Amino acid sequence: MESTRIDWSCSQTWKQSAKNTAWCLLGCSIGDFGTILFFQLTKIPFPVLAIMILAIINGLITSIILETLILIRQNVEFNNALKTALGMSFISMISMETTMNLTDYFLTGGAILNWWVVPLMLMVGFLTPWPYNYWRLKKYGINCH
How far is CA 34 from CA 30, 58, 122, in A? Predict the structure, then answer.
């Protein structure tokens, strides 16, 4: 049986996976925070759970768009760029979005952005998928940016 152990001490892979995770976080945050902020500012009566689900969906969409654009700028054909953005990062994006919104929910009651919760949401959103992104990059050599 072939060994499939991953070397978790490669600083270069940690740096590259951190860069990938940061791009994903930027994309997710745009849609997520934008949605929450919209409902917070407009005061449209909408259930907190519905706002948070919409925020997650919008975060996934904006992250996919951003990652696709980054890949296109690297001369990847549109169809391949979109397929890569959808395929490689989706687990990372879902885990990121879920933990960011759970952090918001547990600390504020949900769908509320303020000066102290946003940095915590970003930190949790970054740290959650980072090891997965490292593993995927190390095991498969797959880089989404």
Answer: 6, 8, 14
